[in-house]
Write a structure and sequence with these properties.
The complex is a heterodimer of chains A (about 300) and B (about 280). Chain A is α/β, with parallel strands linked by helices and about 300 residues long. Chain A is built from eleven helices and 14 strands. In chain A, about 35% of the residues lie in helices and about 30% in strands. Chain B has 13 helices and no strands. In chain B, α1 packs across α7, α4 crosses α11 and α10 packs parallel to α13.
Protein backbone atom coordinates (compact mmCIF):
# COMPACT_ATOMS: atom_id res chain seq x y z
CA UNK A 1 0.00 0.00 0.00
CA UNK A 2 1.29 3.43 -0.89
CA UNK A 3 2.24 5.86 1.88
CA UNK A 4 -0.39 8.30 0.68
CA UNK A 5 -3.24 5.87 1.36
CA UNK A 6 -4.70 5.67 4.87
CA UNK A 7 -7.20 2.89 4.27
CA UNK A 8 -8.50 0.68 1.49
CA UNK A 9 -11.50 -1.60 1.18
CA UNK A 10 -11.81 -4.25 -1.51
CA UNK A 11 -15.18 -5.91 -2.14
CA UNK A 12 -16.16 -5.56 1.50
CA UNK A 13 -19.64 -6.74 2.46
CA UNK A 14 -21.19 -6.51 5.92
CA UNK A 15 -24.63 -7.83 6.81
CA UNK A 16 -26.67 -7.37 9.98
CA UNK A 17 -28.94 -10.37 9.86
CA UNK A 18 -30.52 -10.23 6.40
CA UNK A 19 -29.81 -6.52 5.93
CA UNK A 20 -26.73 -5.60 3.92
CA UNK A 21 -25.06 -2.57 5.51
CA UNK A 22 -22.13 -2.67 3.08
CA UNK A 23 -22.39 -4.42 -0.25
CA UNK A 24 -19.24 -5.24 -2.24
CA UNK A 25 -17.66 -1.91 -1.31
CA UNK A 26 -14.31 -1.05 -2.84
CA UNK A 27 -12.77 2.31 -2.13
CA UNK A 28 -9.68 4.08 -0.92
CA UNK A 29 -9.11 6.81 1.67
CA UNK A 30 -6.05 8.92 0.92
CA UNK A 31 -4.03 10.39 3.79
CA UNK A 32 -5.16 13.81 4.96
CA UNK A 33 -8.76 14.71 5.70
CA UNK A 34 -11.36 12.66 3.84
CA UNK A 35 -15.10 13.10 4.21
CA UNK A 36 -17.42 10.12 4.33
CA UNK A 37 -20.78 11.41 3.20
CA UNK A 38 -24.12 9.76 2.99
CA UNK A 39 -27.69 9.88 4.24
CA UNK A 40 -28.66 8.09 7.45
CA UNK A 41 -28.44 4.33 6.94
CA UNK A 42 -25.96 4.63 4.07
CA UNK A 43 -23.42 2.44 5.87
CA UNK A 44 -20.95 5.10 7.00
CA UNK A 45 -20.76 4.04 10.66
CA UNK A 46 -20.59 0.40 9.66
CA UNK A 47 -17.66 1.18 7.38
CA UNK A 48 -15.80 2.91 10.23
CA UNK A 49 -16.49 -0.01 12.56
CA UNK A 50 -15.33 -2.45 9.91
CA UNK A 51 -12.08 -0.50 9.51
CA UNK A 52 -11.60 -0.75 13.28
CA UNK A 53 -12.16 -4.48 13.15
CA UNK A 54 -15.26 -4.20 15.34
CA UNK A 55 -17.52 -5.59 12.63
CA UNK A 56 -16.44 -8.68 10.78
CA UNK A 57 -17.19 -8.49 7.08
CA UNK A 58 -18.69 -11.50 5.36
CA UNK A 59 -16.35 -10.91 2.46
CA UNK A 60 -13.56 -8.73 1.15
CA UNK A 61 -10.32 -7.35 2.51
CA UNK A 62 -9.41 -4.11 4.27
CA UNK A 63 -6.10 -2.43 4.95
CA UNK A 64 -5.55 0.43 7.37
CA UNK A 65 -2.20 2.24 7.58
CA UNK A 66 -0.72 -0.57 5.53
CA UNK A 67 -1.90 -3.33 7.88
CA UNK A 68 -4.48 -6.01 7.16
CA UNK A 69 -7.54 -5.50 9.37
CA UNK A 70 -8.25 -9.23 9.50
CA UNK A 71 -4.85 -10.17 10.91
CA UNK A 72 -3.57 -7.03 12.66
CA UNK A 73 -6.66 -5.37 14.15
CA UNK A 74 -5.00 -4.72 17.52
CA UNK A 75 -1.90 -3.22 15.93
CA UNK A 76 -4.14 -0.98 13.84
CA UNK A 77 -6.19 0.11 16.86
CA UNK A 78 -3.00 1.28 18.58
CA UNK A 79 -2.65 3.84 15.81
CA UNK A 80 -6.29 4.83 15.40
CA UNK A 81 -8.46 7.22 17.38
CA UNK A 82 -12.18 6.60 17.18
CA UNK A 83 -14.88 9.09 18.07
CA UNK A 84 -18.21 7.24 18.08
CA UNK A 85 -21.43 8.83 16.94
CA UNK A 86 -23.54 8.33 20.05
CA UNK A 87 -22.77 9.35 23.62
CA UNK A 88 -20.08 7.12 25.07
CA UNK A 89 -18.34 7.45 28.40
CA UNK A 90 -17.12 5.41 31.30
CA UNK A 91 -19.54 6.06 34.14
CA UNK A 92 -18.57 7.82 37.35
CA UNK A 93 -15.28 9.29 36.15
CA UNK A 94 -14.09 12.86 35.97
CA UNK A 95 -13.08 14.05 32.53
CA UNK A 96 -9.38 13.98 33.27
CA UNK A 97 -9.49 10.47 34.77
CA UNK A 98 -11.62 9.27 31.88
CA UNK A 99 -9.26 10.58 29.21
CA UNK A 100 -6.18 9.36 31.11
CA UNK A 101 -7.77 5.92 31.47
CA UNK A 102 -8.46 5.85 27.72
CA UNK A 103 -4.81 6.76 27.17
CA UNK A 104 -3.67 3.91 29.39
CA UNK A 105 -5.96 1.52 27.56
CA UNK A 106 -4.30 2.62 24.34
CA UNK A 107 -0.88 1.79 25.72
CA UNK A 108 0.38 4.98 27.35
CA UNK A 109 2.20 4.62 30.67
CA UNK A 110 0.02 5.91 33.55
CA UNK A 111 1.98 9.12 34.22
CA UNK A 112 2.22 9.94 30.53
CA UNK A 113 -1.49 9.25 30.07
CA UNK A 114 -2.40 11.69 32.86
CA UNK A 115 -0.18 14.40 31.44
CA UNK A 116 -1.60 13.90 27.95
CA UNK A 117 -5.14 13.94 29.37
CA UNK A 118 -4.61 17.42 30.82
CA UNK A 119 -3.09 18.61 27.56
CA UNK A 120 -5.79 17.32 25.24
CA UNK A 121 -8.57 18.54 27.53
CA UNK A 122 -7.14 22.04 27.29
CA UNK A 123 -6.75 21.53 23.58
CA UNK A 124 -10.42 20.67 23.06
CA UNK A 125 -11.53 23.52 25.33
CA UNK A 126 -12.46 21.54 28.43
CA UNK A 127 -9.53 22.57 30.59
CA UNK A 128 -11.69 24.40 33.11
CA UNK A 129 -14.18 21.54 33.35
CA UNK A 130 -11.73 18.67 33.52
CA UNK A 131 -12.48 17.73 37.12
CA UNK A 132 -16.22 17.45 36.55
CA UNK A 133 -17.78 14.03 36.01
CA UNK A 134 -18.54 13.40 32.37
CA UNK A 135 -22.21 12.63 33.07
CA UNK A 136 -22.76 16.28 34.07
CA UNK A 137 -21.49 17.58 30.71
CA UNK A 138 -23.69 19.25 28.11
CA UNK A 139 -24.08 17.67 24.67
CA UNK A 140 -21.42 19.90 23.19
CA UNK A 141 -18.98 19.11 25.98
CA UNK A 142 -19.63 15.40 25.54
CA UNK A 143 -18.71 15.73 21.86
CA UNK A 144 -15.48 17.45 22.85
CA UNK A 145 -14.53 14.82 25.38
CA UNK A 146 -15.17 12.11 22.82
CA UNK A 147 -12.65 13.88 20.62
CA UNK A 148 -10.23 14.17 23.56
CA UNK A 149 -10.36 10.43 24.28
CA UNK A 150 -9.79 9.74 20.59
CA UNK A 151 -6.61 11.83 20.37
CA UNK A 152 -5.08 11.26 23.82
CA UNK A 153 -2.66 8.61 22.50
CA UNK A 154 -1.75 10.71 19.44
CA UNK A 155 -3.13 8.44 16.71
CA UNK A 156 -1.99 8.48 13.09
CA UNK A 157 -5.55 8.14 11.84
CA UNK A 158 -8.74 9.52 13.35
CA UNK A 159 -12.16 8.09 12.61
CA UNK A 160 -14.76 10.71 13.46
CA UNK A 161 -18.39 9.64 13.33
CA UNK A 162 -20.70 12.68 13.12
CA UNK A 163 -18.48 14.84 15.40
CA UNK A 164 -20.77 17.89 15.35
CA UNK A 165 -24.00 16.04 16.21
CA UNK A 166 -26.18 18.01 18.60
CA UNK A 167 -23.83 21.00 18.85
CA UNK A 168 -24.93 24.63 18.69
CA UNK A 169 -23.53 26.73 15.80
CA UNK A 170 -20.69 28.20 17.88
CA UNK A 171 -19.70 24.82 19.31
CA UNK A 172 -19.95 23.27 15.87
CA UNK A 173 -17.62 25.84 14.37
CA UNK A 174 -15.13 25.29 17.22
CA UNK A 175 -15.27 21.53 16.77
CA UNK A 176 -14.65 21.90 13.04
CA UNK A 177 -11.75 24.25 13.79
CA UNK A 178 -10.24 21.58 16.04
CA UNK A 179 -10.68 18.90 13.40
CA UNK A 180 -9.18 21.17 10.76
CA UNK A 181 -6.24 21.89 13.04
CA UNK A 182 -5.63 18.20 13.66
CA UNK A 183 -5.72 17.43 9.96
CA UNK A 184 -3.82 20.39 8.60
CA UNK A 185 -1.41 21.43 11.36
CA UNK A 186 -0.89 18.24 13.37
CA UNK A 187 -0.68 16.00 10.30
CA UNK A 188 -3.17 13.47 11.55
CA UNK A 189 -5.09 11.73 8.79
CA UNK A 190 -8.79 11.56 9.43
CA UNK A 191 -11.98 10.16 8.03
CA UNK A 192 -14.88 12.45 8.87
CA UNK A 193 -18.22 10.70 8.59
CA UNK A 194 -21.14 13.09 8.36
CA UNK A 195 -24.40 13.77 6.62
CA UNK A 196 -23.73 17.51 6.95
CA UNK A 197 -22.02 18.62 3.79
CA UNK A 198 -20.82 22.03 5.01
CA UNK A 199 -18.91 20.24 7.80
CA UNK A 200 -17.16 17.97 5.35
CA UNK A 201 -16.53 20.76 2.90
CA UNK A 202 -14.94 22.95 5.56
CA UNK A 203 -12.47 20.28 6.68
CA UNK A 204 -11.83 17.79 3.92
CA UNK A 205 -10.07 17.93 0.60
CA UNK A 206 -11.66 14.78 -0.75
CA UNK A 207 -14.79 12.81 -0.16
CA UNK A 208 -16.31 9.34 -0.41
CA UNK A 209 -20.07 9.39 -0.97
CA UNK A 210 -22.16 6.43 0.16
CA UNK A 211 -25.75 5.43 -0.33
CA UNK A 212 -27.53 2.23 0.68
CA UNK A 213 -24.33 0.34 1.39
CA UNK A 214 -22.56 1.34 -1.81
CA UNK A 215 -19.88 3.88 -2.61
CA UNK A 216 -21.50 6.04 -5.26
CA UNK A 217 -18.78 8.62 -5.79
CA UNK A 218 -15.33 9.49 -4.55
CA UNK A 219 -12.52 11.90 -5.27
CA UNK A 220 -11.24 15.37 -4.49
CA UNK A 221 -14.11 17.75 -3.72
CA UNK A 222 -12.79 20.31 -6.19
CA UNK A 223 -12.84 17.75 -8.98
CA UNK A 224 -16.29 16.45 -8.11
CA UNK A 225 -17.67 19.97 -8.07
CA UNK A 226 -15.70 20.63 -11.26
CA UNK A 227 -16.72 22.31 -14.46
CA UNK A 228 -19.20 19.73 -15.71
CA UNK A 229 -21.65 22.55 -16.42
CA UNK A 230 -23.14 25.72 -15.06
CA UNK A 231 -25.32 25.90 -11.98
CA UNK A 232 -28.41 28.10 -11.81
CA UNK A 233 -30.85 28.90 -9.04
CA UNK A 234 -34.35 28.98 -10.52
CA UNK A 235 -37.75 29.89 -9.09
CA UNK A 236 -40.87 29.56 -11.22
CA UNK A 237 -44.54 30.39 -11.04
CA UNK A 238 -46.55 27.38 -12.09
CA UNK A 239 -46.45 23.63 -11.67
CA UNK A 240 -43.01 22.98 -10.20
CA UNK A 241 -43.18 19.18 -10.39
CA UNK A 242 -44.04 19.32 -14.08
CA UNK A 243 -41.16 21.75 -14.59
CA UNK A 244 -38.77 19.40 -12.81
CA UNK A 245 -39.99 16.49 -14.92
CA UNK A 246 -39.50 18.55 -18.05
CA UNK A 247 -35.93 19.47 -17.05
CA UNK A 248 -35.08 15.87 -16.30
CA UNK A 249 -36.58 14.73 -19.56
CA UNK A 250 -34.09 17.08 -21.22
CA UNK A 251 -31.30 15.38 -19.15
CA UNK A 252 -30.66 18.43 -16.98
CA UNK A 253 -29.57 17.78 -13.44
CA UNK A 254 -32.12 19.38 -11.15
CA UNK A 255 -32.48 19.47 -7.36
CA UNK A 256 -35.30 20.87 -5.28
CA UNK A 257 -34.18 22.68 -2.11
CA UNK A 258 -36.06 23.26 1.14
CA UNK A 259 -37.54 26.50 -0.22
CA UNK A 260 -39.28 26.69 -3.61
CA UNK A 261 -35.88 27.25 -5.20
CA UNK A 262 -34.51 24.79 -7.74
CA UNK A 263 -30.84 24.21 -8.41
CA UNK A 264 -30.32 23.22 -12.03
CA UNK A 265 -27.03 22.14 -13.58
CA UNK A 266 -26.90 22.81 -17.28
CA UNK A 267 -24.31 21.07 -19.46
CA UNK A 268 -21.49 23.36 -20.54
CA UNK A 269 -22.72 23.51 -24.14
CA UNK A 270 -26.30 24.41 -23.14
CA UNK A 271 -27.69 27.94 -23.00
CA UNK A 272 -29.79 29.33 -20.15
CA UNK A 273 -32.58 29.90 -22.64
CA UNK A 274 -33.27 26.18 -22.34
CA UNK A 275 -34.65 26.92 -18.88
CA UNK A 276 -37.16 29.39 -20.26
CA UNK A 277 -38.09 26.91 -22.99
CA UNK A 278 -38.64 24.18 -20.41
CA UNK A 279 -40.81 26.49 -18.31
CA UNK A 280 -42.83 27.51 -21.34
CA UNK A 281 -43.32 23.85 -22.26
CA UNK A 282 -45.21 23.24 -18.98
CA UNK A 283 -46.95 26.62 -18.91
CA UNK A 284 -44.80 28.07 -16.15
CA UNK A 285 -42.97 31.37 -15.83
CA UNK A 286 -39.40 31.82 -14.65
CA UNK A 287 -39.50 34.39 -11.83
CA UNK A 288 -35.94 34.07 -10.55
CA UNK A 289 -32.77 33.02 -12.37
CA UNK A 290 -29.35 33.44 -10.83
CA UNK A 291 -26.01 31.83 -11.78
CA UNK A 292 -24.52 29.84 -8.90
CA UNK A 293 -21.55 27.62 -8.11
CA UNK A 294 -21.92 23.86 -7.64
CA UNK A 295 -21.74 22.89 -3.96
CA UNK A 296 -20.85 19.59 -2.39
CA UNK A 297 -24.54 19.24 -1.66
CA UNK A 298 -25.24 19.29 -5.40
CA UNK A 299 -22.58 16.66 -5.99
CA UNK A 300 -23.97 14.54 -3.20
CA UNK A 301 -27.56 14.85 -4.38
CA UNK A 302 -26.58 13.94 -7.92
CA UNK A 303 -24.54 10.94 -6.80
CA UNK A 304 -27.31 9.63 -4.56
CA UNK A 305 -29.98 10.12 -7.22
CA UNK A 306 -27.90 8.43 -9.88
CA UNK A 307 -27.23 5.48 -7.59
CA UNK A 308 -30.94 5.16 -6.83
CA UNK A 309 -31.82 5.32 -10.50
CA UNK A 310 -29.31 2.57 -11.22
CA UNK A 311 -30.26 0.49 -8.20
CA UNK B 1 -14.00 28.49 25.07
CA UNK B 2 -10.61 29.12 23.55
CA UNK B 3 -8.79 26.49 21.58
CA UNK B 4 -5.30 25.98 22.93
CA UNK B 5 -3.56 24.76 19.82
CA UNK B 6 -0.16 24.79 21.46
CA UNK B 7 -1.33 22.17 23.98
CA UNK B 8 -1.43 19.34 21.49
CA UNK B 9 1.90 17.82 20.60
CA UNK B 10 2.77 14.73 18.63
CA UNK B 11 4.27 11.85 20.60
CA UNK B 12 7.43 10.08 19.59
CA UNK B 13 7.41 7.17 22.05
CA UNK B 14 5.69 3.96 21.08
CA UNK B 15 2.59 2.45 22.65
CA UNK B 16 2.30 -1.00 24.12
CA UNK B 17 -0.74 -2.14 26.03
CA UNK B 18 -0.77 -5.73 24.84
CA UNK B 19 -0.92 -8.16 27.70
CA UNK B 20 -1.51 -5.54 30.38
CA UNK B 21 -4.86 -4.07 29.30
CA UNK B 22 -6.72 -6.31 31.73
CA UNK B 23 -4.53 -5.04 34.56
CA UNK B 24 -5.36 -1.44 33.65
CA UNK B 25 -9.08 -2.30 33.63
CA UNK B 26 -8.86 -4.22 36.91
CA UNK B 27 -6.95 -1.46 38.71
CA UNK B 28 -9.42 1.15 37.49
CA UNK B 29 -12.29 -1.05 38.68
CA UNK B 30 -10.74 -1.42 42.12
CA UNK B 31 -10.00 2.30 42.34
CA UNK B 32 -13.64 3.04 41.52
CA UNK B 33 -14.82 0.58 44.19
CA UNK B 34 -12.57 1.86 46.94
CA UNK B 35 -13.81 5.40 46.31
CA UNK B 36 -17.28 4.28 47.44
CA UNK B 37 -17.89 4.63 51.15
CA UNK B 38 -20.56 1.92 51.21
CA UNK B 39 -18.08 -0.56 49.75
CA UNK B 40 -15.47 0.30 52.37
CA UNK B 41 -18.04 -0.15 55.17
CA UNK B 42 -19.06 -3.48 53.69
CA UNK B 43 -15.43 -4.57 53.62
CA UNK B 44 -14.96 -3.45 57.19
CA UNK B 45 -17.95 -5.46 58.38
CA UNK B 46 -16.76 -8.46 56.36
CA UNK B 47 -13.52 -8.48 58.35
CA UNK B 48 -15.23 -8.64 61.75
CA UNK B 49 -15.45 -12.48 61.69
CA UNK B 50 -11.74 -12.60 60.92
CA UNK B 51 -10.98 -10.42 63.94
CA UNK B 52 -13.16 -12.67 66.12
CA UNK B 53 -11.41 -15.79 64.79
CA UNK B 54 -8.07 -14.10 65.43
CA UNK B 55 -9.06 -13.51 69.03
CA UNK B 56 -10.17 -17.15 69.27
CA UNK B 57 -6.79 -18.34 68.01
CA UNK B 58 -4.99 -16.04 70.48
CA UNK B 59 -7.10 -17.19 73.44
CA UNK B 60 -6.66 -20.89 72.61
CA UNK B 61 -2.91 -20.44 72.21
CA UNK B 62 -2.48 -18.55 75.47
CA UNK B 63 -5.19 -19.79 77.84
CA UNK B 64 -5.40 -23.59 78.40
CA UNK B 65 -8.86 -23.09 79.96
CA UNK B 66 -10.18 -22.20 76.52
CA UNK B 67 -9.32 -25.56 75.01
CA UNK B 68 -12.99 -26.05 74.08
CA UNK B 69 -12.35 -23.37 71.40
CA UNK B 70 -9.47 -25.38 69.92
CA UNK B 71 -8.61 -24.53 66.34
CA UNK B 72 -9.00 -27.37 63.81
CA UNK B 73 -9.29 -27.71 60.06
CA UNK B 74 -13.04 -27.29 60.44
CA UNK B 75 -12.49 -23.86 62.01
CA UNK B 76 -11.19 -22.61 58.71
CA UNK B 77 -13.99 -24.31 56.78
CA UNK B 78 -16.55 -22.73 59.12
CA UNK B 79 -14.89 -19.35 58.75
CA UNK B 80 -15.16 -19.47 54.96
CA UNK B 81 -18.76 -20.68 55.31
CA UNK B 82 -19.55 -17.59 57.36
CA UNK B 83 -17.91 -15.37 54.79
CA UNK B 84 -20.38 -16.60 52.15
CA UNK B 85 -22.87 -13.95 53.26
CA UNK B 86 -20.33 -11.19 52.67
CA UNK B 87 -19.28 -12.77 49.39
CA UNK B 88 -22.91 -12.56 48.30
CA UNK B 89 -23.31 -8.88 49.26
CA UNK B 90 -19.97 -7.83 47.77
CA UNK B 91 -20.72 -9.73 44.56
CA UNK B 92 -24.03 -7.92 44.26
CA UNK B 93 -22.67 -4.50 45.23
CA UNK B 94 -19.40 -4.55 43.32
CA UNK B 95 -20.32 -6.81 40.41
CA UNK B 96 -23.79 -5.88 39.24
CA UNK B 97 -22.71 -2.70 37.45
CA UNK B 98 -19.35 -3.86 36.15
CA UNK B 99 -20.59 -4.54 32.63
CA UNK B 100 -24.19 -3.24 32.85
CA UNK B 101 -22.93 0.31 33.48
CA UNK B 102 -20.59 0.08 30.49
CA UNK B 103 -23.44 -1.12 28.27
CA UNK B 104 -25.71 1.67 29.53
CA UNK B 105 -23.05 4.31 28.83
CA UNK B 106 -22.00 2.82 25.44
CA UNK B 107 -18.53 2.31 26.88
CA UNK B 108 -17.94 -1.06 25.25
CA UNK B 109 -17.14 0.58 21.92
CA UNK B 110 -14.62 2.82 23.69
CA UNK B 111 -12.85 -0.21 25.14
CA UNK B 112 -12.99 -2.36 22.04
CA UNK B 113 -11.92 0.40 19.63
CA UNK B 114 -8.57 0.30 21.45
CA UNK B 115 -5.92 -2.42 21.28
CA UNK B 116 -7.90 -4.60 23.66
CA UNK B 117 -9.51 -7.96 22.98
CA UNK B 118 -12.89 -8.96 24.35
CA UNK B 119 -11.12 -11.58 26.47
CA UNK B 120 -8.89 -8.93 28.02
CA UNK B 121 -11.91 -6.76 28.77
CA UNK B 122 -13.71 -9.62 30.52
CA UNK B 123 -10.49 -10.64 32.31
CA UNK B 124 -10.12 -7.09 33.65
CA UNK B 125 -13.69 -7.02 34.94
CA UNK B 126 -13.32 -10.52 36.41
CA UNK B 127 -10.10 -9.54 38.12
CA UNK B 128 -11.80 -6.53 39.70
CA UNK B 129 -14.55 -8.61 41.25
CA UNK B 130 -12.36 -11.58 42.11
CA UNK B 131 -9.83 -9.33 43.88
CA UNK B 132 -12.61 -7.73 45.92
CA UNK B 133 -14.00 -11.16 46.84
CA UNK B 134 -10.57 -12.63 47.59
CA UNK B 135 -10.10 -9.82 50.08
CA UNK B 136 -12.90 -11.24 52.24
CA UNK B 137 -12.13 -14.94 51.68
CA UNK B 138 -8.60 -15.98 50.80
CA UNK B 139 -6.82 -13.00 52.40
CA UNK B 140 -8.40 -13.24 55.90
CA UNK B 141 -8.31 -17.05 55.93
CA UNK B 142 -4.63 -17.02 54.99
CA UNK B 143 -3.98 -14.35 57.59
CA UNK B 144 -5.56 -16.61 60.23
CA UNK B 145 -3.31 -19.45 59.07
CA UNK B 146 -0.32 -17.18 59.56
CA UNK B 147 -1.53 -15.91 62.95
CA UNK B 148 -1.95 -19.39 64.44
CA UNK B 149 1.77 -20.28 64.65
CA UNK B 150 2.60 -16.71 65.60
CA UNK B 151 0.23 -16.78 68.59
CA UNK B 152 1.04 -20.39 69.52
CA UNK B 153 4.77 -19.86 69.30
CA UNK B 154 5.19 -23.11 67.33
CA UNK B 155 4.24 -24.54 63.95
CA UNK B 156 2.74 -27.80 65.19
CA UNK B 157 -0.77 -27.00 63.97
CA UNK B 158 0.36 -25.96 60.51
CA UNK B 159 2.68 -28.96 60.15
CA UNK B 160 -0.18 -31.31 61.03
CA UNK B 161 -2.63 -29.48 58.76
CA UNK B 162 -0.51 -28.51 55.79
CA UNK B 163 -3.44 -29.31 53.48
CA UNK B 164 -5.17 -26.19 54.81
CA UNK B 165 -2.90 -23.90 52.78
CA UNK B 166 -4.00 -25.24 49.36
CA UNK B 167 -7.52 -25.96 50.67
CA UNK B 168 -8.07 -22.32 51.64
CA UNK B 169 -6.63 -21.14 48.33
CA UNK B 170 -8.56 -23.61 46.16
CA UNK B 171 -11.90 -23.15 47.90
CA UNK B 172 -11.54 -19.36 47.84
CA UNK B 173 -10.68 -19.51 44.15
CA UNK B 174 -13.69 -21.72 43.38
CA UNK B 175 -16.01 -19.52 45.42
CA UNK B 176 -14.90 -16.20 43.93
CA UNK B 177 -14.63 -17.57 40.39
CA UNK B 178 -18.14 -19.03 40.40
CA UNK B 179 -19.61 -15.87 41.92
CA UNK B 180 -17.68 -13.54 39.62
CA UNK B 181 -18.42 -15.43 36.39
CA UNK B 182 -22.12 -15.73 37.22
CA UNK B 183 -22.44 -12.09 38.18
CA UNK B 184 -20.56 -10.84 35.13
CA UNK B 185 -22.71 -12.94 32.82
CA UNK B 186 -25.85 -11.49 34.39
CA UNK B 187 -24.34 -8.00 34.29
CA UNK B 188 -23.81 -8.34 30.54
CA UNK B 189 -27.50 -9.08 30.03
CA UNK B 190 -28.87 -5.74 31.18
CA UNK B 191 -28.23 -1.99 31.22
CA UNK B 192 -29.52 -1.70 34.80
CA UNK B 193 -27.31 -2.67 37.73
CA UNK B 194 -30.41 -2.89 39.94
CA UNK B 195 -32.05 -5.39 37.65
CA UNK B 196 -28.81 -7.40 37.59
CA UNK B 197 -28.68 -7.38 41.40
CA UNK B 198 -32.25 -8.64 41.56
CA UNK B 199 -31.49 -11.34 38.96
CA UNK B 200 -28.48 -12.57 40.93
CA UNK B 201 -30.31 -12.57 44.25
CA UNK B 202 -33.26 -14.28 42.55
CA UNK B 203 -31.00 -16.93 41.08
CA UNK B 204 -29.39 -17.62 44.45
CA UNK B 205 -32.54 -17.64 46.55
CA UNK B 206 -34.84 -19.29 44.03
CA UNK B 207 -32.54 -22.27 43.51
CA UNK B 208 -32.06 -22.52 47.26
CA UNK B 209 -35.83 -22.40 47.80
CA UNK B 210 -36.43 -25.19 45.29
CA UNK B 211 -33.79 -27.29 47.04
CA UNK B 212 -35.45 -26.53 50.38
CA UNK B 213 -38.83 -27.62 49.02
CA UNK B 214 -37.49 -30.88 47.57
CA UNK B 215 -35.69 -31.52 50.84
CA UNK B 216 -38.92 -31.25 52.79
CA UNK B 217 -40.88 -33.27 50.22
CA UNK B 218 -38.37 -36.11 49.84
CA UNK B 219 -36.74 -36.00 53.29
CA UNK B 220 -33.48 -36.21 51.40
CA UNK B 221 -30.69 -33.83 50.36
CA UNK B 222 -30.08 -35.64 47.07
CA UNK B 223 -31.38 -32.58 45.20
CA UNK B 224 -28.84 -30.16 46.66
CA UNK B 225 -27.30 -29.85 43.18
CA UNK B 226 -30.25 -27.61 42.26
CA UNK B 227 -28.89 -24.81 44.48
CA UNK B 228 -25.69 -23.07 43.40
CA UNK B 229 -24.57 -22.25 46.93
CA UNK B 230 -25.23 -25.80 48.13
CA UNK B 231 -22.93 -27.10 45.43
CA UNK B 232 -20.28 -24.71 46.62
CA UNK B 233 -20.71 -25.94 50.20
CA UNK B 234 -20.58 -29.56 49.07
CA UNK B 235 -17.38 -29.04 47.07
CA UNK B 236 -15.92 -27.01 49.95
CA UNK B 237 -16.42 -29.88 52.36
CA UNK B 238 -14.47 -32.21 50.08
CA UNK B 239 -11.68 -29.68 49.61
CA UNK B 240 -11.36 -29.37 53.41
CA UNK B 241 -11.36 -33.16 53.82
CA UNK B 242 -14.67 -33.11 55.69
CA UNK B 243 -17.62 -35.44 55.15
CA UNK B 244 -19.95 -33.92 52.51
CA UNK B 245 -23.03 -32.39 54.10
CA UNK B 246 -25.48 -33.43 51.35
CA UNK B 247 -26.32 -36.73 49.68
CA UNK B 248 -25.55 -35.38 46.21
CA UNK B 249 -22.26 -36.89 44.95
CA UNK B 250 -19.57 -34.17 45.20
CA UNK B 251 -18.62 -34.79 41.57
CA UNK B 252 -22.14 -33.79 40.53
CA UNK B 253 -21.86 -30.58 42.55
CA UNK B 254 -18.47 -29.88 41.00
CA UNK B 255 -19.87 -30.48 37.51
CA UNK B 256 -22.73 -28.10 38.24
CA UNK B 257 -20.27 -25.38 39.22
CA UNK B 258 -18.16 -26.01 36.12
CA UNK B 259 -21.30 -25.86 33.97
CA UNK B 260 -22.26 -22.55 35.59
CA UNK B 261 -18.87 -21.08 34.71
CA UNK B 262 -19.00 -22.45 31.15
CA UNK B 263 -22.50 -21.09 30.54
CA UNK B 264 -21.46 -17.73 32.00
CA UNK B 265 -18.41 -17.62 29.73
CA UNK B 266 -20.63 -18.42 26.73
CA UNK B 267 -23.03 -15.61 27.67
CA UNK B 268 -20.13 -13.19 28.02
CA UNK B 269 -18.71 -14.27 24.67
CA UNK B 270 -22.05 -13.56 23.04
CA UNK B 271 -22.83 -10.29 24.80
CA UNK B 272 -19.49 -8.47 24.85
CA UNK B 273 -19.55 -6.75 21.48
CA UNK B 274 -18.67 -3.24 20.42
CA UNK B 275 -21.98 -2.97 18.62
CA UNK B 276 -25.36 -4.33 19.52
CA UNK B 277 -27.09 -5.82 16.49
CA UNK B 278 -30.85 -6.03 16.71
CA UNK B 279 -32.24 -8.30 14.03
Amino acid sequence: MADDVAATLENVSVAYGTQWALSEVSTEFPTGAVGLLGPNGAGKSTMLKALLGLVKPSGGTMHVLGLDVASAALKIRERIGYMPENDAQIPGMTAVSFVAYCGELSGLPAADAMQRAHEVLYYVGLGEARYRTVETYSTGMKQRIKLAQAIVHDPDLLLLDEPTNGMDPKGREEMLALVRDLAHNKNISLILSSHMMPDVESVCASVVVMNRGHVVMRGPIATLKGPAGRMFEVRIKGNQSAFVEELRSRSFDCRETDSDLLRVLLPAETDAHELFASAAAVGAQVRHLKPSLPTLEDVFARAVRESEEQG
Amino acid sequence: MPIHRERYRRREDGLDVRGRAWVVIALQGLRALTRKRAFLYLMLVAWIPCVIRGVQIYVVANFPQASFLAVTGRTFRDFLDQQELFVFFITVYAGSGLIADDIRANALQLYLSRPITRTQYVAGKLATLMAALAFVTWVPATLLLILEPLFAGNSTFIRHNLYLIPAVAIFSLVEVAVGAFTMLALSSLSKSRWFVAVMYAGFAFFTQAIFGATRVATQSTAFSWIAAFSNLAQVGDVIFRLPPRYETPPIVSAMFLVALVVVSAAVLNRRIRAIEVVT
